[in-house]
């Protein structure tokens, strides 16, 4: 007669041991990484929150007992909005000081928007009407701007803008003219040692005016080249 097998007494909470071991091993792994490198504390806490959410579905607490009242887990590796804002303000102040130091106040206009910091150049001082060749008497100003760009490592977008008055001649439309002008500025900066890997051109033509094209004064303001210093995080 065959011997009966004993029934194994499986407790309903036996899984907790495996769960606890897994969490402990994961936490030990990240603590080990932390001890071997210089990790941003805030980012480490973000990882902790993410792991806690994975296992407990409770976004209110982290494995480091750091309270997160919003219940949100920021993406690891990104700067916080506060740090991004501080960087943007610092860079704006730095560029403003360089503009003042180089006495460029009357030739450029410094503004800031959600994309970054704009150094705006009026078309009239850069180019002759309907042309894309940079005036030789403006070279000194561009040289100073190139020095400012060289002193920072941000991506540079060079934007060409025009008014809405139709043109004729070499360029078939305003967008072509705006591209040629933006490209002329890019090539000039490249000749001054700025890496082309850091620069891109954008041709907007008449499509993004800053004033209504209803007067000579307003159209003059719309004819411009913007040198956008991209600030990561500003568009969040």
Automatic annotation (TrEMBL):
It is a single-pass membrane protein. It comes from Clostridium cellulovorans (strain ATCC 35296 / DSM 3052 / OCM 3 / 743B). Residues 114-233 form the OmpA-like domain. Keywords: Cell membrane, Membrane, Transmembrane, Transmembrane helix. It holds the Pfam family OmpA. It is found in: Cell membrane. The keyword Cell membrane applies. This is OmpA/MotB domain protein. It comes from the Bacteria.
